[in-house]
Structure formats: structure tokens, C-alpha cells
Fold D-methionine transport system ATP-binding protein.
Amino acid sequence: MIDLHDVRKVFPARRRSGEVVAVDGVTLQVEAGEFAGVVGPSGSGKSTLVRLVNLLERPTSGSVTVDGRVLTDLPDDQVRQARRSIGMVFQHFELLDSRTAAGNVEHPLELAGVGRAERRRRAVELLDLVGLGERADAHPGQLSGGQKQRVAIARALAVRPKVLLCDEATSALDQASTTGVLELLRRVRSELGLTVLLITHEMAVVKAVCDSAVLLERGRVVDSGRLSEVLTREHSPLSDALLPAPLADAGAGHSGVLLRVTVTDRTPETVVLQTLIGQLGLAVEVAGGSVETVAGGRYGRLLLRATGDLSRLDGALRGLRDDGVLIEAVPRDTDAVAATGAGR
């Protein structure tokens, strides 16, 4: 549905000679119906990337294909037509203060030449969908931040797009409003069969709604994949960002051995505990970590402290790894366990 191939965007520097490379050779694919996230720190090129998808910014080089059409091959007038299949939600809502909620939703339909009665019918339908049917006649100044973003989502859906782009759609909202907007995005994706590309700097947002993610740094993709695969991948920067390994004191004052383990539905902590306690007879305590639901599955990083007769531990760890468990012993000469992924 969305296919970027070797996309590069260069801007001229404003205060000095030279140029600024905002997006540097990015290749990514988002399948139809997928909810994908692009995540990274400020300045990593996320917002530029999303504007390249609908050609609000034309790439310096590379190709952009959406719904089978190579947008980068189209002249500007045909690009404007193609954008009708791509809705966009912005960080700061971008609503027209002079229009009511219904008037804002009607605006893209008006630009598309849709008649007044049909515009109103569609606006009422969409405001009902986003839970604001009773606020159709309210102006933006009478709405909360979360309500404004719901109106913006309704507006983005007005022309029945196949793709929805969200540029930091929750970063201006409080936690309660963020949760509500994310639940709404997930629901409209399912009900309307949308493909969603969400730009965010918040890992919690990716964990809450995304099927897949791309991690950007300095305009380049450093890691990507479906979350169900990424979270069980060794040496994954994206996995480490989504589920940091726990910190714990590993000094010489502690007896036994520290073990880092990645927990999943297929390799729950009970598998490890049965081996360490049941087979080896070790005493085991959880020294840190957490387990949570991500992409509909159970994932986590735990730090276990095992004490007792450790003579057979190396063999047991090899057996667990052969069975697909990501587990390793933490070196004893470290002062602290860094936030790195299990299996490193």
C-alpha cells in the first residue's frame, strides 16, 4: 500500500552554506491494512518522511508509491488528485477556528466539489463515528484538545481515504486524551479497512497500537519490522527502545548469577523457572524487569538472580537457547546491568 524506495530529501542550509540531509536513503513498505509506526528522536527525519509519503514535500531522489500509483512520477495536478486517497492528521489539529466541528469536516468535501446536503450528511456520520455527534455545531475554541483531534480525524476521513497519515497526532494531548485517540485510530483502522502510518517519538504509542515499526536516526532506518518479530530479535535497537532491559546492581556483594531473559507468549518465564528451579534446584528471585502486552502479545525483559549449585547452569542455558529462549548470564565484572537486550 505504501512503498518508499531509496528516498532522499535534502534541504538547503538556512544559516550556512551547504545542505541538510533530512531523509537519507529510506526504503520501507507498509502493507494494506497495517498500522505502522515511525519512531525516533527529534531531528531524526520523522515528520519530513511522512510529508514525503503524500508529496507535501517532493523527495530529492527515490520513489514513493501509494496504492499502486507512483506519486513521484505524477505532475503536481495529478498529485493533488491522488492525495484524496490519503488522509492526514497533524499534531496541532490545524482546524479552522471560524468553522464549527461539522464545518471543518465538510471543508475537504467542499474543496472536492461535493454538494451541501451530502457534505452535511457525511460530516454528521463521521462526527458520530468519532464520538462527537453532539458537538457538531461547536467551534474549535469550545472543544478540548482530545475533541479537537477527533474532529481532525473525522476531517481526514471525509473523502474516504485508503491511507491515514498521523504526524505526532497525540503529542499535544494529555494521557487520557492520548489513550482515547489511540483507541479511536485503532477502531477506525479496523472498521474502515485503513492503512495507517503514525509518526511519533513515544515508544508507548507504538506499543499501544502498531503492528510494525521503523526506527529512524539522522534520517536513516536503523531497525524495522513487525513488533512480534522485532521483540524477539537479538541485537535489535528497536527492541531495546521498546522494552529496555532492567537495571540492577551486579556488584561482587551479591552471590549467585544474574540472568537476562526475554519473555514471550511462546517462551514464558515459567519455562525458564522450571529449568532453573525444577531441574537444577536453584533458588531464583526476580531482580528487575517487567512484562506487558505489545501488539496483542505478551513480551518482557526480566533480570533473574539464581543461587545454589551452578555447576550445570551453562549446559541448561545452552538447552534453553536451543529451544528459542533468549537468555544469558550477565558478566560478573560489571558494576551495573546496562539497558541492553537479552541475548547480547
Observations:
- The mean pLDDT is 89.
- The domain at 243-329 is CATH 3.30.70.260 (Alpha-Beta Plaits).
- The CA atoms of residues 285 and 305 lie 5 Å apart.
